[in-house]
Amino acid sequence: MLATSNSRQPFHSQPLRERLVKKIAVFADVQNIYYTCREAYAKQFNYRRLWQQLQEQGSIVAAYAYAIDRGDNQQLKFQDALKHIGFDVKLKPFIQRSDGSAKGDWDVGITIDVLEAAREVDMVVLLSGDGDFAILLDKINQDYDVETLVYGVPSLTAHALINSASLYQAIEQPLLQ
């Protein structure tokens, strides 16, 4: 279910003419979406269906999927599928620390790319439930008056992020596979 905040028009109720000219940039926090969909639904997110939904709203002029490179074959197939859909896949190496903890976070990279794209597009679409991005959405809403749409698993998406977005789309069927 799509919800609005900041008293903007619902995503699907805008006139068709207006939606067709909308320039959209998509930023997917792949690790966050993978783990939240797995935890909440024991399913995977359907990036192809997302792409189809967004194409109905305008022109996707940039799309980035941020992932961690563990070098396994299954992951390589998934990354190839994302590329085939239209995503530019950005990879960071998986780092295992000596204390057993792991590092592989794309928050700064996503933030930089969103800030650069926000001045060129009409809508920024963020796939993540990470509340750290709330400040980013507040900033681009204020500085660029860009529409922001967050896709996240309802029970695992930070309320601050939902409140900072112009629009929120719960990840549920038919976006699961």
From TrEMBL:
Q: Name one GO molecular function term.
A: RNA nuclease activity
Q: Which residues form the NYN domain?
A: 23-168
Gene3D superfamilies from the xrefs?
Answer: 5'-nuclease
Tree of life domain: Bacteria
**Which PANTHER family does its entry note?**
SLR0650 PROTEIN, SLR0755 PROTEIN
The name of this protein is NYN domain-containing protein
Q: Which species?
A: Agarivorans albus MKT 106
